[in-house]
TrEMBL record:
GO annotation, cellular component aspect: plasma membrane
Family per record: Belongs to the binding-protein-dependent transport system permease family.
Biological process according to GO: transmembrane transport
Domain of life: Bacteria
This protein's name: Sugar ABC transporter permease
Transmembrane segments annotated in the record for this chain: 27-53, 94-119, 131-153, 165-184, 265-284
PANTHER family for the chain: ABC TRANSPORTER PERMEASE PROTEIN MG189-RELATED, ABC TRANSPORTER PERMEASE PROTEIN MG189-RELATED-RELATED
Database matches in Pfam families: BPD_transp_1
Length: 298
């Protein structure tokens, strides 16, 4: 075997070649990462962009030109048709949906905060057993409860009513109670003790200390609740059959079957259904990113 002695210049050249090779590998890796992310973004955003473009086309253009062509002429007649009352009363569906989401949001936050505070800070027999028993209901698929809920609310005479849509969701959810309880437990006990020494009662501690200090998790739950129930489809479809109580998802789905030859107006309805959620994301994008971190690590 012949050993070749490496001079300093040779070692330097070899080191430079290694660094260049690693830099080239990192460059290709970065390029592949960006290509995958770009492909994912196009796949995710493509249907939304297609829906928006189609909503501004005339039915004639949509039927004669490529779906990817830009609107020419640009028209708002599809949106006007949604609110004219001749085809569908879409404005009423938006009002019903907004009322449903608002009632559920207020109810869920109120009851979840009260329950989470009790599980986190109050002492009573069986507290932890009751909490974990309640939390275990998260493992029950929501679809399993649809039939029993339907039968119960029908027996109570709440089928085809606004409260029939709202009642199953307006009380605290296990997920919200779990997140709030963990956040409440993270607040230093010394702050609560100091408030008690100053004469604050339980209600005052909850409303003046715990809730203000828990603003990030409450904002997170607010966003999650709005998005979840704005998109809720199955339960409103089952419990109501009246067009006057159609939420926006049910109204849009019924338009897809009723006007399947007029996709421009269906796409206008779909775009309107998405618009509030897009606006919420644009306004609260920082809180949404924080919410992902909070719900991931807690």
């Amino acid at each position: 075997m012949t050993l070749v002695e490496q001079t300093p210049d040779t070692r330097s050249a070899i080191g430079a070649m290694d660094r260049k090779g690693r830099a080239t590998s990192r460059g290709w890796g970065t390029l592949a990462t960006y290509a995958i992310l770009l492909g994912g973004a196009l796949i995710t955003l493509g249907p939304f962009a297609l829906s928006i473009i189609t909503s501004f086309k005339t039915p004639q253009q949509f039927s004669t030109e490529s779906p990817l062509s830009l609107p020419a002429p640009f028209t708002m007649q599809n949106y006007a048709g949604l609110f004219s009352g001749e085809l569908v009363d879409f404005g009423h569906s938006i009002i019903v949906t907004a009322g449903y989401v608002l009632v559920v949001l207020v109810g869920q936050l109120t009851f979840s905060i009260l329950a989470a505070f009790a599980f986190a800070r109050l002492r009573f027999p069986g507290r932890d057993v009751l909490f974990w028993l309640y939390l275990s209901t998260l493992m029950i698929p929501a679809v399993v409860t649809v039939v029993p809920l339907y039968l119960m609310l029908t027996e109570a005479g709440l089928r085809n009513t606004f409260w029939g849509i709202v009642l199953p969701y307006m009380f605290g959810s296990p997920y919200a109670i779990f997140l709030l309880r963990e956040y409440f437990r993270g607040i230093p006990e010394e702050i609560v003790d100091a408030a008690r020494i100053d004469g604050a009662g339980t209600w005052r501690i909850l409303t003046r200390i715990m809730v203000p200090l828990s603003r990030p998790i409450i904002v997170t739950l607010t966003i999650i609740t709005i998005v979840t129930h704005w998109n809720n489809f199955l339960w409103p479809l089952i419990i109501t059959g009246s067009p006057s109580l159609s939420v926006i998802t049910v109204a849009t789905a019924s338009m897809q079957s009723q006007y399947n030859g007029n996709w421009t107006i269906v796409m206008a309805a779909t775009t309107l259904a998405m618009a509030p959620l897009i606006i919420i994301f644009l306004i609260f994008n920082r809180q949404i990113v924080n919410s992902i971190a909070i719900t991931s690590f807690r």
